[in-house]
Amino acid sequence: MIIRKHIESDKDELIRLIGRFRVKLAELKGVKKELDLKSAQEELAYYQHKKFPIFVAEDKELNLIGYHVCRVEDDIIWSESLYVVPEVRRRGIGTALYEKGELLVNEVGGETLYNWVHPNNDISISFLKKRGYDVLNLIEIRRKRLDEKFTQEINVGRNKFNY
After folding, report:
1. Which of 25, 43, 52, 157 is most buried per CB count within 10 Å?
2. pLDDT < 70: residue spans in the chain
């Protein structure tokens, strides 16, 4: 496995990975979503326009098997999206990609890599907790969207919310 910054020739594979990531995020909300490569292409174009660092993981056959986009705002680095194809998870690929973001934090003199995570994204939450991330400081509260289905109930302090 090789972790590196993306290059232009990665475009088609990276668009497919971004599309798969968005399908998975929709599933977390109980929404069935089809692979939308046009939206994924627009998302990649946005990242490139903003000059967000994009790291990719490549297997022995030179296929992309994961990516990590970092949003840079002065000395604050956000993990914008991190995705590893399900078939190769639990092999250190996500960790290696994530470490690239943590290195960026060090380079700009920041203190931590910031993350937004869906409350029912147990995989990401467990991944971050193992890496020492545990401070929650923002809760998004909004009304249910028309196409959303609640999949669980979460507790925030003394309050219960459908999610």
Report:
1. 43
2. none
25 vs 130: CA distance, rounded Å: 21
Residue of 8, 110, 108 lying closest to 54 (CA atoms):
8
Q: 2-162 — its CATH code?
A: 3.40.630.30
pLDDT in the model for residue 139: 73
pTM for the whole structure: 0.87
Instruction: Write down the domain spans for the chain.
Output: 2-162
Distance CA 4, CA 7 (A): 9
Give the phi and the psi of residue 39 in degrees, each rounded to 5.
-65, -40
The span from the CA of 152 to the CA of 37, in Å, is 29
